[in-house]
């Protein structure tokens, strides 16, 4: 098999756009208020988890799985059909009747329990352990060898669709599904969907589902990092349309980042890919959402002074957007003042 970097690139017939994101209630209110005036009174919205995995498009023709493509840059993705054929819960053939063709879109994830078992057996199986579900799913679905991909614990959940033609199951005579109808059809055809899925017509209803997902995040066997809110009806989605990069009829409401405590053990300078000088804290290793964090950005001397940071400082650390490690604040005074005079000189 070819390396993942040389997998065949495939053009999406309908772009797989990314979702715009809001990080707090004020952002949700702004998004909600911005679309309400363009829609009929009390339109229906769906709420479901935002999975922390790898987005995927699966195409069925005459009920048979014929192609699977990663999201890629949204316009083109990698053909990973051979790897998707190894995912246990992905049906190779649909229950009739079915659209011809049907493009299902969803997320490849790794269940926490299956990942833990994989890692327990990794030493005796002579393979490396997988650090976290997100990186594991992304790496497994684009693996260069489908036989090795088959050994990875991948699971797929459908949450939307792309190209749909020739179905007798449209809503209101349109050529599109309501999201609620799409889920029902997936379940009838044998396509896996995630059990948490709610509909609401109010902002308070959205908040209730969000609070539920925040509360169930740690105990869920699937990693999620927020909630996706979508306009349910296809006419609503058509009316709101898309921007160049994201649909206006959907938004990802991200969870607050997990925060943990650590200690700054050292401070170093580094030159980033853009050529800019950065200050990095070497911290006591901590686990944040399954990732071991040993370094976090300190931005610049002004940031360090404002936050009262130095070697020996007890600090609160998070991962911005659950990705980039950063220090939020210090806890008490630094154990020793930090001499920042050498910031004036670039490292060689």
TrEMBL record:
The keyword Protease does not apply. It catalyses: NAD(+) + (deoxyribonucleotide)n-3'-hydroxyl + 5'-phospho-(deoxyribonucleotide)m = (deoxyribonucleotide)n+m + AMP + beta-nicotinamide D-nucleotide. Pfam families: DNA_ligase_aden, OB_DNA_ligase. GO terms for biological process: DNA repair; DNA replication. InterPro entries: DNAligase_adenylation, DNAligase_N, NA-bd_OB-fold, NAD_DNA_ligase_OB. Gene3D superfamilies: DNA ligase/mRNA capping enzyme, Nucleic acid-binding proteins. Keywords: DNA replication, Ligase, NAD. Coiled coil: none annotated. Residues 122-146 are annotated as: Disordered. SUPFAM superfamilies: DNA ligase/mRNA capping enzyme, catalytic domain (SSF56091), Nucleic acid-binding proteins (SSF50249). One of its GO terms (molecular function) is DNA ligase (NAD+) activity. This is DNA ligase (NAD(+)). It comes from marine sediment metagenome.
């Amino acid at each position: 098999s070819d390396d993942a970097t040389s997998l065949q690139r495939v053009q999406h017939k309908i772009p797989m756009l990314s979702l715009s994101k809001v990080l707090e209630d004020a952002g949700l209110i702004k998004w909600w208020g911005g679309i309400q005036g363009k829609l009929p009174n009390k339109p229906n919205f769906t709420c479901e988890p935002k999975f922390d995995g790898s987005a995927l498009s699966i195409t069925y023709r005459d009920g048979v799985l014929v192609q699977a493509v990663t999201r890629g840059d949204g316009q083109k993705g990698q053909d990973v059909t051979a790897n998707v054929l190894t995912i246990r819960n992905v049906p190779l053939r649909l229950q009739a009747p079915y659209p011809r063709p049907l493009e299902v879109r969803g997320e490849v994830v790794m269940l926490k329990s299956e990942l833990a078992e994989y890692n327990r057996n990794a030493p005796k199986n002579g393979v490396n352990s997988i650090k976290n579900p997100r990186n594991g799913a992304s790496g497994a679905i684009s693996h260069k060898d489908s036989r090795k991909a088959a050994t990875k614990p991948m699971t797929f959940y459908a949450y939307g669709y792309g190209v749909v033609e020739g179905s007798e199951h449209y809503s209101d005579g349109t050529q599109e599904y309501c999201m609620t109808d799409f889920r029902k059809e997936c379940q009838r055809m044998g396509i896996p969907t995630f059990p948490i899925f709610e509909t609401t017509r109010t902002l308070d209803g959205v908040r209730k589902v969000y609070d539920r997902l925040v509360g169930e995040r740690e105990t869920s066997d699937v990693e999620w990092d927020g909630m996706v809110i979508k306009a349910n009806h296809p006419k609503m989605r058509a009316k709101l349309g898309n921007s160049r990069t994201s649909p206006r009829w959907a938004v990802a409401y991200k969870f607050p980042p997990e925060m943990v405590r650590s200690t700054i053990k050292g401070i170093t300078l580094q030159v980033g890919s853009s050529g800019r000088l950065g200050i990095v804290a070497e911290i006591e290793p901590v686990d944040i959402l399954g990732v071991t964090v040993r370094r976090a950005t300190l931005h610049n001397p002004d940031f360090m002074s404002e936050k009262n940071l130095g070697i020996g400082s007890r600090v609160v650390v998070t991962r911005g957007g659950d990705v980039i490690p950063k220090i939020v604040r210090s806890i008490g005074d630094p154990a020793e003042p930090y001499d920042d005079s050498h910031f004036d000189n670039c490292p060689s």
